Amino acid sequence: MEREVNEIAVGLDIGTTKIVAMVGRYNEYGKMEVLGVGKSKSLGVHRGVVNNITQTIQSIQQAVHEAESASGMKINDVTVGIAGQHIRSLQHSDYITRPNADAVIDEDDIDKLCNQVHKLVMLPGEEILHVLPQEYKVDGQAEIKEPVGMYGGRLEANFHVVVGQVTSIRNIGRCVKSSGLELSEVTLEPLASANAVLSQEEKEAGVALIDIGGGTTDLAIFKDGIIRHTAVIPFGGNVITEDIKEGCSIIEKQAELLKIKFGSAWPGENKDNEIVSIPGLRGREPKEITLKNLSKIIHARVVEIIEQVFLEIKNYGHESPKKKLIAGIVLTGGGSQLKHLKQLVEYITGMDTRIGYPNEHLAGNSDSETTSPMYATAVGLVMDSLAHIKKQKKTIQKQVVTNTEVDQQGETYVDNLSNNEEENPRVDLKPRKNILEKWTEKFKEFLDNAE
């Protein structure tokens, strides 16, 4: 089935426990419709980083094949999320002095400033993924949200810079390309999850999004509608399963089931006489485990994860009045479904907490599976991809308008162009690309050359 330019987008969430391919489009009400979902067990990924290329390729192909069967579409290009313990972020300030202070500031000036940040010297093997402007200063006047259209000689900005390891990013790109897919965009997973589960009001008021995945826990903090802090903590639901496995001497499959069915983050909730019996391996005696002990094991590890995340929230400085997170904390990801986790997070942090379901932008008739917190990142990636396609479409329309105007200027203009190229520079009809698009293009070039 031939894909229309503007309609359909595909998000690929390469996680530690599962790989999800999701096909979606906007309906007539501007809500996102999920046309098909495919998921497979993720075998070659550890803590968000690919450690087995062949297995990851197989898992991607399986998920994509499932999504194709469910949606009846042929999937060609995907938007991929990037997370992993190698992601870090830093704050940076930079400025440019404009040659002509009497001309208004335009998009070119902002591009120039962002490109300057891209030239920052990183540690060996690291690359800048996102450069996110926080607020601007024009000639010393602070707290400017949008400087375009203002006069000024010195344009200054604070940036939130997200940095990742080059090799890890390239490995993900290699897996996608080897699966027979095109890489249309690369997005930071905490940003994608935030798009799916947070409302604009929450982002304005100040909110911390905690996405508890299998191998990593992602954090994104918003205030005044702008992303202020991101972090990836290298622990997730898998370490809890691992602890249950060790503590109760059972196999991983049983530990995972125990966690999902009977697990609780609050030991006080279980009575002492609640016991679950687990069949022994190969005719061995069954094991009896008290639910209180199970909760204690889970509780200890969950507290550790939450405290690490809370430390990051403190590093952002949420205690100062200007940086206060009024909307509190939103928990999402597969790990957020653990019983009594909301209460525990509120107890440790003293902040209002809710579980984030990705139904904020989904169509009302979406099935309950896709609105599960497990699919928050996938939904966010599809939304990012759709927004990207919409933007491209707008740019193409602008081009068409400009082309028509150029045509209507008559043949004299064309003659002038051919006679005197230098006096009349050709109208630049190329759409302006943002930083990430430029980076994705460079990245694609690199992959093509590597082959």
UniProtKB/TrEMBL annotation:
<dbReference type="InterPro" id="IPR050696">
    <property type="entry name" value="FtsA/MreB"/>
</dbReference>
<dbReference type="InterPro" id="IPR020823">
    <property type="entry name" value="Cell_div_FtsA"/>
</dbReference>
<keyword id="KW-0131">Cell cycle</keyword>
<protein>
    <recommendedName>
        <fullName>Cell division protein FtsA</fullName>
    </recommendedName>
</protein>
<keyword id="KW-0132">Cell division</keyword>
<feature type="domain" description="SHS2">
    <location>
        <begin position="9"/>
        <end position="197"/>
    </location>
</feature>
<dbReference type="Pfam" id="PF14450">
    <property type="entry name" value="FtsA"/>
</dbReference>
<dbReference type="GO" id="GO:0043093">
    <property type="term" value="P:FtsZ-dependent cytokinesis"/>
</dbReference>
<comment type="function">
    <text>Cell division protein that is involved in the assembly of the Z ring. May serve as a membrane anchor for the Z ring.</text>
</comment>
<dbReference type="GO" id="GO:0009898">
    <property type="term" value="C:cytoplasmic side of plasma membrane"/>
</dbReference>
<dbReference type="InterPro" id="IPR003494">
    <property type="entry name" value="SHS2_FtsA"/>
</dbReference>
<keyword id="KW-0472">Membrane</keyword>
<dbReference type="Pfam" id="PF02491">
    <property type="entry name" value="SHS2_FTSA"/>
</dbReference>
<dbReference type="InterPro" id="IPR043129">
    <property type="entry name" value="ATPase_NBD"/>
</dbReference>
<comment type="similarity">
    <text>Belongs to the FtsA/MreB family.</text>
</comment>
<comment type="subunit">
    <text>Self-interacts. Interacts with FtsZ.</text>
</comment>
<dbReference type="GO" id="GO:0032153">
    <property type="term" value="C:cell division site"/>
</dbReference>
<keyword id="KW-1003">Cell membrane</keyword>
